[in-house]
Amino acid sequence: MGWLDKIRGVVNGNSGDDQEWIAVDGVADTSALLRVIEESMPRDAMVNIVKPRSAEVEGLLQQHKTGGSNPDEGDYYLALSGPAIGQLSRLVSEIAPDPAFGTVLVTQNGRNLLEAYRRDNGEDVVWLSASLPERLLASVRNALEIAAKQPPAPPLQFPQAKSA
Length: 164
Description:
This protein is an alpha+beta fold. The chain has one domain (about 15-150). The chain is built from 5 helices and 6 strands. It has helices at about 5-10, 30-40, 55-65, 85-95, 135-150; strands at about 20-25, 45-50, 75-80, 100-110, 110-115, 125-130. A 6-stranded antiparallel beta sheet has the order 1-6-5-4-2-3. Strand 4 and strand 5 form a beta hairpin. Helix 3 packs antiparallel against helix 4 (about 85-95). The chain is globular, with a radius of gyration of 17 Å. Residues about 1-20 have low confidence and may be disordered.
């Protein structure tokens, strides 16, 4: 691929090297990203969470991890078909604004459908595979663009017990 093709790909929102990825910028709210994944991605897909940054998140990942997970490396796979992603989304909203983990990937049959790296460093770009079926790609992209326009939800506040 020539350098003009790479530039054209970046301008069009595709990754420069292979033009098979579409970038959606501004998805800073990780809880919202997880909700989009839960609601939009194929039910037989797996969600790969890398480098959890809190004991609460790691505990939930340990509870729901599937085969292929490597907890010693901070690498967890969760089935999208179960309750884990919804629970993780709620937990992430409770601990916001602290980053919950480094990376979230959605995989299906050995290929990545969605990639979101460096969440723990404030990265807000989500990459979608251009090989997704057209309707699914449009639906996920639209949901991510809506999430990008919403301000991140403030952490949940629990009422303090009154002392006597």
